[in-house]
Amino acid sequence: MEEVHTVHVKIAFILGFLLSASLGHPEKGRSLPPGECEPIEIPMCKGLHYHFTVMPNILGHKNQEEAGQEVHQFYPLVSVQCSSEMKNLLCSVYSPQCVNGTARPVCKTTCETAKMGCEPLMRKFGFVWPSSLACETFTTESCEEYLSASQIQKKLVQMGHTVGDQVLSLQTVRILMSLKDDERSGKLDEHRFQELQSYVSAAKKEFVEIQQVKDGAVSEKMLKSALKAHDLRLNDLNFGLLWNRYNTAGQVNFDEFVAILARLETLKDRFKSHRMTNLPCDCVMASFSLDDFIRDTLL
């Protein structure tokens, strides 16, 4: 049975790498002009920590269809799971993350890890590591760590973003991340994390200044004033609903305070992104799909 499996794997490699000798290779240090971010359409590269790419890629593919046809030849390597980083490497080359209209450089460490796991298997079947994935042509400068909600929560505590013994809950951290997670990936790179921690630092400073009698909580009146200072003006009905949801014994603690600010500012940003223009009235309205509405209100 094992012998049959080996034969199938060998056939998969033969089919997968039949055209590998014709693949190009990236130009070392090559930078591409800014383009337009577009949703990832290549099946193998969907569901990563990023959801938008930009063309051309470093191999010169002008569109995703062209890149997808070539990267699919490597699917056998991904399917046999010779390395957990192989898929990340391939997608970063063929369908790179779009950062402000520019392709994110390929991480050299990711390439080396993928090569270490997959090259021995390739050699076993008579194949060499393709020149298009030459690790020495990539850089370590793009090897940023992507932080999950639990990692961010831990780092915020380590950085002193607490009030007394109050720490930000995991749920509040997830709400905070929605302010910075443009890719909706559930993770943040170091740059976005620094933006998030700056936001938390400012919110903590504000909370400490307005807390009543330095007991780690704010009153209804204090919260209403804080929201106005952030240009988050709620009518009496909505503020009442918000207050009833978050207050405990007539006050709101640090975690709840940050969650309220982040949730409202996220919803405000989402509303602006869906705002309708050229309306026949002196009003502000937005258009949402049901999926958009559910996603945003679940924050």
Quick summary of this structure?
With 299 residues, the protein is mainly alpha-helical. The protein has two domains: 2-137, Frizzled cysteine-rich domain (Orthogonal Bundle); 149-267, EF-hand (Recoverin, domain 1, Orthogonal Bundle). The protein is 48% helix and 4% strand.
Task: Give a topology summary.
Blueprint: H1 2-16, E1 38-39, E2 52-53, H2 64-71, H3 75-79, H4 86-94, E3 98-99, E4 102-103, H5 108-124, H6 149-158, H7 170-180, H8 190-210, E5 217-218, H9 220-229, H10 236-246, E6 252-253, H11 254-273, H12 290-297
Antiparallel strand pairs: 1-2, 3-4, 5-6
Helix pairs in contact: 6-7, 7-8, 7-11, 8-11
General description of the model:
A two-stranded antiparallel sheet has the order 1-2. The chain has two domains: 2-137, Frizzled cysteine-rich domain (Orthogonal Bundle), CATH 1.10.2000.10; 149-267, Orthogonal Bundle (Recoverin, domain 1). 48% of the residues lie in helices and 4% in strands. It is mainly alpha-helical. Residues 1-5 and 17-32 have low confidence and may be disordered.
